[in-house]
Amino acid sequence: MGHMHHMAGGWITPVLSYAMAVLGAALGLRCTVRALAAGGRSKRTWLITASTAIGAGIWTMHFIAMLGYTVDGTAIRYDIPLTLLSLLVAVTVVGAGIFTAGYGTSRVRAVLIGGLGTGLGVAGMHYIGMSAVQINGDIGYDPTAVAASVVIAVVAATAALWAALAVRGPVIATVASLVMGLAVSSMHYTGMAAVRVSVHASTVPLSGASATSFIFPLAVVLGSFLFLTCAFVALSPTARERAEDRAAARPLHEVELPAT
After folding, report:
1. What's the predicted TM-score (pTM) here?
2. Could you give the angle at the alpha carbon of 148 between the alpha carbons of 143 and 149, nearest 5°?
3. Could you list the pLDDT tens digit for every one of the 260 residues in the chain?
4. 3-class SS at 196?
5. Backbone φ, ψ for residue 134 (5° rounding)
6. Domain locations along the chain
7. How far apart are CA 56 and CA 49, in angstroms?
């Protein structure tokens, strides 16, 4: 058995990764709420932004947490195509869930299917991301902990979606984002607790990229994207809503009520 450290860098990796998950969730849930109020192309754009935000937030959370992951007796490398695939899966599967929620006529079904899709997106991304990990040794999983991690992801994603869609207000939105961030983080660490590593003594160099050469720069790029988009979405509604309010107010005087 290789001894694993999940927090080799101390508390910075779990805290930072949780913050990224919350940021992605906050942006994603905000965009989902905006999508429900919109129609046509605008709705589609909001839903795509929401899926990308949540997917990128989950992915960034996972790999920032992985920066603190070390195994005694072996270096760790990441398979680049699989790492990118895990990002694609996160965005696509979460997207399927979010679009279902966005276009669903039944609120309950939208939340259940959306939560299931989002949760499975989190889990799928995690385990594809883990299959990208290359060590001198074998990585196995405890099936019970894997199952638990998937259930945590689905339940918490459903709860966060429900909170975001059912209740209005900044406090609830913040709580929903914190819950969603907690969902992704708990799923991650439960999933990591399922990992069983056996290390082989080997001098063969590992293929793949090191975390600092590939994972870290990509996480920084995605993190910056989330942060800037978050700021943009948070600041943009006021002017646009004011314009919509003006547009909505103007025709009222001009519209003739049809005679009954």
Report:
1. 0.76
2. 100
3. 566 676 666 788 888 888 888 888 888 888 888 887 888 888 888 888 888 888 888 888 888 888 778 888 888 888 888 888 888 888 888 888 888 888 877 878 888 888 888 888 888 888 888 888 888 888 888 999 889 989 988 887 888 778 777 766 778 778 888 888 887 888 888 888 888 888 887 767 777 776 666 777 777 777 777 777 766 776 665 445 656 666 666 554 555 555 55
4. strand
5. -115, 125
6. 4-237
7. 10
